[in-house]
Amino acid sequence: MGIHFDSGAGLFTLETAHTSYHMQVDERGHLLHLYYGRRIGQGCLSTLYPPADHGFSPDYYPNRRDRGVSPDVLPQEYTGCNVGDFRLGCLVARDEHGAAGADFLYVSHTIRPGKYALNDLPAAHDEEEEAETLIVCLKDAVTGLELELLYGVFARQDVITRAARLRNGGSAPLRLEKAASLCLDLPFGQWDLIHFHGRHAMERQMQRAPLTNAIHTVSSTRGASSHHHNPFVILCDRSATEDAGLCYGVMLVYSGSHRTDIEVDQNGSTRLVSGLHDQGFCWYLQPGESFETPEALLCCAPDGLGALSRRYHRFIRHNICRGVWRFARRPVLINNWEATYFHFDTETICRIAEKAASLGVEMLVLDDGWFGKRDDDNSGLGDWYVNENKLPGGLNPLIERINALGMKFGIWIEPEMVSEDSDLYRAHPDWAFTLPGRAPAMGRDQLVLDMGRPEVVDHLTDVLSDLLRRHHIEYVKWDMNRNMSDVYSRALPPERQGEAAHRYMLGVYRLLNRLTIAFPHVLFEGCAGGGGRFDAGMLAYFPQIWCSDNTDAIERLTIQHGTSFGYPVSAVGAHVSACPNHQTGRNTPLWTRAVVAMSGTFGYELDLGRLTDEECRQVKEQIAAFKRYYDVIQNGQYYRLSDPSREPRYVAWQTVTDSEALLNLVLTRPEGNARPLHLCLRGLEEDALYCVDTMRLYGTTVTPEVHSVQAGISEGAVYSGSTLMYAGCTLPQLSGDYPSVQLHLTRVTNH
Predict the structure, then answer these.
(1) pLDDT at position 702, please?
(2) In the chain, which stretches have pLDDT less than 70?
(3) Less crowded by CB within 10 Å, the N or C end of the chain?
(4) CB within 8 A of 164, min separation 6: which ones?
């Protein structure tokens, strides 16, 4: 495993535990992509691409007479610009004459132990000293533009990270109008595209469709990775399932506007290009200056979609997330938002905390409305001082009362935004994005701060550091409740306005890096109107992200299902909320709400004082169950046991460790004369024995007497792993409105 270079053939081979990645410097000096897939070892594969003349595909100039050597058909590792490749391109570079062109030829390469780093962008880290770095240097002779292709090979994890560094090595300024992170050419095969679309309160809805001879685009121009198109896509065999088939994942470590294009060309070859969105983007490079693209996490799983997901889950937890909280047990929390919204005072919050503490909740989070002049969402953002009309004496007396109950204290902030009605905006109106001479579009009656300005980042660093130093705050919910429009920075000259959106994101990362290093004990949770910035870039600073503002447990099933394809359970912020649900009006059993929220960080967001004695007893049981199952939920291997788009009756999923397994199922569509609920478990040891030590049925209207005579899996029974995985198990019949099942198995012995 690792990185190998055959100098005689100009061949690079990147080998991981299960995959091989081949590229070659051809006789002209171009870097060609040859293969990425199931591990095949070393060896030259250039014979897969014999020269052939293709009509209207121009050849390189030295081949103008012999023909058949065209950039339009050869598989590229990273494309040039305006040199006869009419497929998707990685780059648009324009010189001082306005001419766009770049033809990159190999100069040198470096192989070294460890993982490369990026200067201002989040990237994977290597704490176990398993990674190797390959840097391939190429150059355009005319402009002097230098291209470094960066590869981080995590061999045991089957992950290859990629990024590009562009340096102006010439004597005149250059203008980058597009700079992608990677190109992936798959010259053979027919693929399905899986992507994750949505909207606010309905994020990451999985959609799968065959690629056609066209260009397919998954993108966001919102200044955020967005609720609408997650920066993560999968290409897979048309026959691929959870357990079989070749699958490729491409995930950007970036939280701003992004674009992934996939093209099937005239020859049936598939090209994927992913990186920063080029709409409105323009970056000036003076001689000697460099530009780095966001990192992409590339993973190939020859053994199905489930294996691809589990590789991403482990990699994100171990190599993207940082700090003490990535593996530590997260406290069960109560958030006051859906209980009070903006209308609270110290006594209201303390009453919520007292009730929560009596039920076993471990932390209270004070949401929006505690600061400035903030009685609704029309004022106060930017003024991060305490509203003492609501909280007499400030935060410390409240925190002391919360801590006296044995609970931690957390708080909500939205630092990247500003209200027009705020002291900050009145003092610094030029710190907000607005277009000269135009009234701005308003989202939630707020504007976006220009985070690309160093003085804005410095101000927020000082204000938020002071907040965290002066108060015993152990959790921060970091929100962002509008997307970017009117993007114009008053700190940049006209020719650099195309840099404003990306500079914004770099400023956000700079602020997050400062705060998470200065306050390592604080658990930071990301949020952007729910899941509007649920991406690997944010996870480099926040070990968990509020998955969606939609807290309806049944809606959350498909949201969390889609999220699971790329992101681990430990990253998914999930709460039990009130019924009727505040977003949908739906009534769902309290235990079913808990089963869904347990496949996340778990907490509550409702007025616990309105619960009945029976419901309070259930909350106590839920918290105890979550703590009991914490290891298998958060640290176990995750398996999707159903596809909501194909099986409308239920959603089922499972987590597994070496010693235990937890099966969860929610019935979404009860039937008359119901068919059996039969499932095959996954991830167990074939020869091991498993005892069903707990089987809980929640919310079902079928009586215990009926259950007792049903044939099916039962509490206390012992089964072999092979029986549960291949013969499967039949669950008791469920009926009523959204009942659920939790089945816990403990490994007892081997045959």
Answers:
(1) 59
(2) 702-711, 750-751
(3) C
(4) 78, 90, 147, 148, 149, 150, 179, 180, 181, 182, 292, 293
Count of alpha carbons within 13 angstroms of residue 334, beta-carbon side:
27
According to the model, what pLDDT value does residue 130 have?
Answer: 93
CA distance 295 to 315: 14
**β pairing state of 11-15 and 2-6:** antiparallel
Residue 637's DSSP bridge partners are: 656
Among this protein's residues, is 26 annotated catalytic?
no
The token duo for 282 is 């323009």
Which of 102, 97, 56 is CA-nearest to residue 78? Answer: 102
Burial group, residue 199, by CB count within 10 angstroms (0-12, 13-18, 19+): exposed
For helices 613-635 and 346-359, the axis angle rounded to 10 degrees is: 70
| Catalytic (active site) residue 72 | no
Helix (H), strand (E), coil (C) string for 481-538: CCCCCCCCCCCCCHHHHHHHHHHHHHHHHHHHHHHHHHCCCCEEEECECCECCCCHHH
Closest-CA residue to 173 (of 279, 79, 292, 288): 288
d(CA 740, CA 735): 9
What pLDDT is stored for residue 706 in this prediction? Answer: 47
Positive/negative CA dihedral, 105, 107, 112, 114: negative
DSSP H helical ranges for 289-345: 305-315, 337-340
Q: How far, in Å, CA of 147 to CA of 378, rounded?
A: 47
In 535-640, alpha helices (H)? 536-539, 553-563, 590-597, 613-635
Indicate which residue of 140, 535, 549, 552 is catalytic: 549
> φ, ψ for residue 618 (rounded to 5)?
-65, -40
Query: What are the distances in angstroms from CA 296 to CA 275, 372, 617, 673, 684?
Result: 8, 40, 46, 49, 32
pLDDT recorded at residue 54: 87
Nearest to 524 by CA among 254, 319, 374, 328: 328
Summarised one tens digit per residue, pLDDT across range 279-314 is 999 999 999 999 999 999 999 999 999 999 999 999
Q: H helices within 598-692, ranges in order?
A: 613-635
Give the type of residue at 601. Answer: T
Residue with tokens 């609270």: 344
The first and second tokens of residue 513, run together, are 């890096």
Helices (H), 405-492: 423-427, 454-470
223-233 residue pLDDT tens = 999 999 999 99
> Looking at the chain, how many residues does it have?
751
Looking from the CA of 636 toward its CB, the CA atoms found within 13 Å total: 26
Q: Which residue in the list 158, 479, 535, 552 is annotated as catalytic?
A: 479
CA distance 529 to 226: 10
Q: What is the pLDDT of residue 528?
A: 98
Q: Which 8-state DSSP code applies to residue 99?
A: -
Helices (H) and strands (E) in the chain, counts: 13, 39
Alpha carbon 636 to its chain centroid, in Å, reads 19
pTM equals: 0.97
Residue pair 550/202 in contact (Cβ under 8 Å)? The answer is: yes
Q: What span, in angstroms and rounded, lies between the C-alpha atoms of 626 and 606?
A: 18
Dig out the tokens for 235 from the structure.
């290409």
For tokens 């991981």, the residue is 16
Q: Residue 307: its pLDDT value, please?
A: 98
